[in-house]
Every structure is written in structure tokens, then in C-alpha cells.
Amino acid sequence: MSDVPKIAIYDTTLRDGMQGEGISFSEEDKLKIARKLDGFGVAYIEGGWPGSNTTDTEFFRRARDVKFNNARLVAFGRTRGAKCPAAEDPLVAKLLDAGTSVITVFGKSWDLHVRDVFRVTLDQNLEMIRDTVAYLVGLGKEVIFDGEHFFDGCKADLQYALGTLKVAEEAGASCLVLCDTNGGTLPSDIAEMTAQAVKQSKVCVGIHAHNDSELAVANTIAAVRAGATHVQGTVNGLGERCGNANLCSIIPVLELKMGMSCVPEGAVARLTELSRYVDEVANIVPNDTLPFVGVSAFAHKAGVHADAVEKNPRTYEHIAPETVGSVRRILISSYAGGSSVVHMARRLDVDLNKQDPQVKALLDQVISLEREGYSFEEAEASFELVVKKSLGLYRKVFDLRGFRIIVEKRGPGEECITEATLKVAVDGVEAFTVAEGDGPVHALDNALRLALERFYGEELAKIKLSDFKVRVVNTRAGTAAKVRTIIESRDSEGSWNTVGVSENIIEASWKALADSVEYGLLKHLGGK
Ligand SMILES: [Zn+2]
């Protein structure tokens, strides 16, 4: 095992990732993500820039009480200012206040920035790097040096850019990180310049790439090939502008394709879970098409592909989905042919083969529902109910007896009031409820929950409606315009989507909502 090359993973989701548009983490969010990253097994967690805002300062204060098992927490900040020594610089003092054993200091490696942004001489900049690194090393800290704009610096003045690394190394930095801060460098240039840095350095060389040319992962891999052994990035590629290098792609590439070791054994299989967790805390909708971890990464649609994958997964999958904690999905559509039906039946522990008349009947049903405007690709839970009904595995949890919705606006500037009245029956026992809501779907959901509470209170409490989408569809049947609503619900284990179609938006919503609640209840009721 010892000759497997090792790469240190340095996560900056909590610092650079937080620069992404629409991303904001509270201290509590940051602590949650830090614990998750530690459990996953990254080597370093960059927690933030102490002193730059109260959240980061407070985060480091609270993180002192957290015991990390795999990762080392890192405070990030700049080199000292031009005027005073590092020992007297207030921002450097803040870095020390964070109380971490590792500190990352970024300095300028591009002469343009030295002159136009810092407005100091090239030598003064070198002295700022040397003094800051030496001061912190002298206090027993492990210091990582980030050479900001290193690659642009190389293009402008190669010797100077390399010189900034040399100064940091001589001052005691343990790792020299080459940053493609503007994200505009190509992999071939990254490889060449990284090789030069590796050649002149005795300490570890790292890479920090941004995704402005959609090359952050490729650039990271190019740097590793050229000798970098420390990789910085963020979960799901969160970050400023187009984001940082995506660790959820880099980690499996290093581990599964390059034979390198960067996380503890078994961690790669928890990658999808890590990706979803961070999106969940960041409150952003997961990107379905992310490689490795997106829900579409192992989704097969076209009939021939779905068929071949069922026979031998390697035909259309570059890795087995389980290796990154994902699952294969055969998208439900008449295009996918019998495979989608067979695949779903297998999930329900029913073994069918494609020649089975039940498969043909189900497929005919899918085709006719698609004509009406249904699409099950994004609504597997509704499809599961269709299959269960057809295979006799279905159990009705409630009957709708009727509903009425009133939407009222009492004058200009007044808010709309929505009220839903609903009648359902469970095993012949009727429940009649009235509820208000923010809009018709919300009001219906509230009324339904109220009605079902006394029958399924415990199970119902676990299910939450989390997203609602409406789309106008031109049905293949060519009738009047219809709307398709997709409802996403979730529980502590995951989410599921259901679909409803009608010419009436309220009815379409009701169908999706009824499926959603029914699916969730059946799941939690189990054999009850
Ligand atoms: Zn960055």
C-alpha cells in the first residue's frame, strides 16, 4: 500500500465556496459542514478568513470545541501590509486568534497586482511574504502559502512568480499552492508551469483552480500529473463566478482512475451523500448533471442504452455507480421500452422479463399517459404507484371525496387569501377539513394533512413538501393546453417526485400532491 501516491485534499467550501452567488452559511451551517467533511476524510478544512467578518471569527471560536478526527482546520488570510512588520499587523493577529495549527497565507505572485493593487515595489512584496510566513512558522504554525494569480504571474514574469514561491519556502512554508485565480489558464500551461515550480521546490506543491474556462478539474489533474500533491477545491464546485475546482469530480478521478490515494478507504462511496449534504445546508437545488454525484450521472433513457446497461453496465457506464454512492436509474419513458418497467419491478422485488404480458400492458399504459402529457422521468414515485397498482402491490391509503378552493382578493393592495375545503375517507371513515395557505397548493396540502392527521399522524409528520414546478405541455394528443405539475417531497432519508397533468392547474396539482402524500405514507407505513 505504501507505494500508492498520496494527495492531500484541502477543502475550501467554507471560504472560497462561500463566495459563490447565492451562497451564505451561518456559523452553525459551517460547523455542520466542517463535521461532515471531517467525517468524510479530507486532510484540511479551510474554515474562513478570521477578522474579515463576524461569522468567520465566531466559527473559529466555536470550532475550538469540536474534535476533528481526520482533518486539520485552517485559518486563511493575507500577507501583512506594506507598512508594519507581521508581528504588529492586526489582520495577522486575527489569524493567530483563530487558534488553528495550520494557517494559509495568500500573497501576490503576479507583478501586475503588486504594482497596481498593493502599490508596492516587487522587493517589498517579497519581504511581505517572507516576514509573514517566517513570523507564523516561528510561532509553531504550519504555514501553507497560496501564490495568488501564480499562472498569470508566470506568463508576465516567470522568474518573479517563481521567486515568490522560493521566498515562502525559505521562510518555512510547508506547501506552495499555485493559484489560477482568474480561471483562464489552459491545462497544457498549468502542467508546464507546475512542473517548473515542482522542480525548484523541496516542499509540497499544491493547486488551486477556478472554473472560468470550465477547466478547473482538468487543470487540477494536469497539475497533479506534473507533480502537485496538494489539491484545493470545493464540494460541488461552489465558488465565486463559475466556481472552484469540484472536489466531487477530482476525488473519484484521483482514486478510481489514477490509482492515487486522497481520502480514507471507503470514503469515495460516501461522495454522493457529501455532495447532497452540502447542497442541503447551502439550501440550493442540486445540479442533476454533475459528473459522478448528480442524479443524472447514471441515468439511462434511450431504449438501446437502457437495454445494454441491464445486460452489462460497462456498456454505457464509465464506473459502477455504487463506487461513488450513487445508483443506476433507468428513466421511465416509452422510449426506454420494457427495460424501465422491468427495472422498476425489480426494485419492488418482482421479477419480470420483457416478454411478460404484464410488461407489455404497463408499457401501453405509459404510452397512453405520455400522450395525455405525463412524463415519468422526473416523477419516479408516481410511476412506482402505477406499477404497484398494475402488479397488485398497491394499497389505498385514502379516498378523495371532493375539494373546493376559494381565492379571494378584497381590493387593490390587499393580499390574496386562499382557502381549501377537502373531504377524504380512510377505510370508509370520512374527514372534512378547511385550511388556509399561501396559494392553492399550499392550502390543499394543509387541508389534506389536517384530514389525514388522526389516521396517519406519526407517518405524516415525517413528510414535507419541498418543491413545486408547473410547466405547460403540448400533449401528443393535440388537445387543449395542459399543465404538468411536479411536486417534490422529502423525509429524512431523501426526496421523491410525483406528477399530475390536467387542463386545470389545481387539478394537476392535486394529482401530484395526492401521489406525493400517498407514496410517502406507503413508504413509512411499510407492512402496517
Ligand atoms: Zn480562489
**Strand adjacency order, main sheet:** 1-2-3-4-5-6-7-8
| Secondary-structure content class | alpha/beta
The level of helicity is 40-55%
Q: Alpha-carbon distance between the termini? A: 49 Å
Mean pLDDT over the residues:
93
**How many strand elements?**
16
Short description:
By secondary structure, the chain is an alpha/beta fold. Helix content is 41%, strand content 20%.
Description:
The chain contains 16 helices and 16 strands. It has 528 residues and is an alpha/beta fold. The relative contact order is 0.07. The strands form 4 sheets. The protein has an 8-stranded parallel β-barrel with strand order 1-2-3-4-5-6-7-8, surrounded by 8 helices. Strands 11-12-13 form a 3-stranded antiparallel β-sheet, covered by helices on one side. The longest helix has 21 residues, at 150-170. The model has no long low-confidence stretch (mean pLDDT 93). It is elongated. The protein binds zinc ion (ZN). Zinc ion is lined by residues 16, 181, 208, 210.
List the helices and strands and how they pair.
Elements: E1 8-11, H1 27-40, E2 44-48, H2 54-63, E3 72-78, H3 90-97, E4 102-108, H4 111-118, H5 122-138, E5 142-148, H6 150-170, E6 175-180, H7 187-200, E7 204-209, H8 216-225, E8 230-233, H9 247-257, H10 271-282, E9 299-300, H11 303-311, E10 329-330, H12 338-347, H13 357-372, H14 380-391, E11 399-408, E12 417-426, E13 429-437, H15 440-460, E14 464-473, E15 482-491, E16 494-502, H16 505-525
Parallel strand pairs: 1-2, 1-8, 2-3, 3-4, 4-5, 5-6, 6-7, 7-8, 9-10
Antiparallel strand pairs: 11-12, 12-13, 14-15, 15-16
Helix pairs in contact: 1-2, 1-10, 5-6, 6-7, 7-8, 11-12, 15-16
Bound molecules: zinc ion.
Residues 16, 181, 208, 210 line the site of zinc ion.
